[in-house]
Amino acid sequence: MKFRDYHSQPTSDLELAPMIDVVFLLLIFFITSWQFARFERDMDISVPAAEQTENSKQTVGEIILNVREDGAVVLNGAPVTSEELLGRLKTISGAYPDQAVILRGDSKADFQHIISVLDLIKQAGIWNVAFAATKPETPQ
Q1: Hey, what CATH topology would domain 38-131 get?
Q2: What is the pLDDT of residues 29-56, one digit of tens each?
Q3: Which of 35, 44, 132, 137 is deepest in the core (most CB within 10 A)?
């Protein structure tokens, strides 16, 4: 009876191609998920709190407008003037009539700044506007 010698079998090599594929897929996943949340992180904005807020999923292509405390408007991470904002919004609404806009106003900002941005959104022909708010912190 001949027994097989386990020590004489060649050792299997570590295949790098599947591991590299998995690493690249993970890299692509994290880069794309970071890209969607990047415009919503404006550290100068402190949105007001509301009891009836929902955490909705961010859709691809939605516009995020931040109105800072001093009235400066930031469109998807870049500061813009009123004329630039109106021009960009008109261009976008012409191409995409149902375009969604999320308006994030600082809780300490003057209400007139937010209303003037809302007027520009209306002038551009965009009707799908949402206001961002956070849930109030519960005391512990």
Answers
A1: Nucleotidyltransferase; domain 5 (3.30.420)
A2: 888 877 665 555 555 555 555 555 555 5
A3: 132
